[in-house]
Design goal:
The protein is mostly helical. The chain is built from 8 helices and no strands.
Length: 161
C-alpha cells in the first residue's frame, strides 16, 4: 500500500468527493498543491489539473449545482440569505446557480430567522439595548433587516396576544 503522500491527483480528488460535494473552484484550490510538476512548468500542472476536473465533471462526480444545493440545505436552518450567498460566492459558485437558489432561500428565511431567534433568545427584548443586541446577532447570521424586524414584531405580538 502506498503512503498518503504518494496518492495520485485523481485518487485525492475522489477521496475529497467521497466525503462531500465540492465546487470546481474549491476542489481545484484543494488539489493545486498536490499537482505534479512533471516538466517543471507550472502551466502544465494547471492543464493536467483542469483536464482531471473536466473529466470528473463529465462523469458526473463533480457538480457545482450539487455543491450549491448541499450547502444551501446544510446552512438554511441556521443562516440567512445574505450569509449563504456570500459563502457560495467564496466557494466559486456561479451567479446563475446562486440566483437559482435564492427564491427557495428567501421563501424560508423568515421561518429560519424565527427559529434562530427562538433558540438564542426566546424572549422579547425589554429595552433598546437588548433589541440592538438581538438585531446584531441575527444580522451576523446573514438575515436582512426586514426579516429581523418581522421576527421581533411577531414575537412581541405573540407575547401580547
Amino acid at each position: 500500500m502506498r503512503k498518503k503522500s504518494e496518492l495520485s491527483l485523481r485518487e485525492r480528488a475522489l477521496q475529497c468527493l467521497a466525503r462531500r460535494e465540492y465546487s470546481r473552484a474549491e476542489l481545484r484550490a484543494k488539489l493545486l498543491p498536490y499537482a505534479q510538476v512533471e516538466e517543471g512548468s507550472e502551466q502544465s500542472q494547471a492543464i493536467d489539473l483542469d483536464a482531471l476536473l473536466d473529466d470528473l465533471t463529465v462523469r458526473g462526480w463533480l457538480s457545482d449545482a450539487r455543491a450549491t444545493s448541499q450547502l444551501v440545505h446544510a446552512k438554511r436552518s441556521r443562516f440567512g440569505t445574505q450569509r449563504i450567498t456570500h459563502e457560495l460566492r467564496q466557494k466559486g459558485i456561479s451567479d446563475e446557480l446562486i440566483d437559482a437558489a435564492l427564491p427557495a432561500l428567501k421563501e424560508s428565511e423568515l421561518d429560519s430567522a424565527r427559529d434562530v431567534w427562538q433558540r438564542k433568545f426566546g424572549v422579547v427584548p425589554q429595552d433598546a439595548k437588548e433589541k440592538a443586541k438581538q438585531m446584531r446577532f441575527l444580522q451576523s447570521r446573514g438575515f436582512s433587516i426586514d426579516v429581523i424586524l418581522k421576527v421581533l414584531k411577531l414575537a412581541s405580538a405573540m407575547e401580547e396576544g
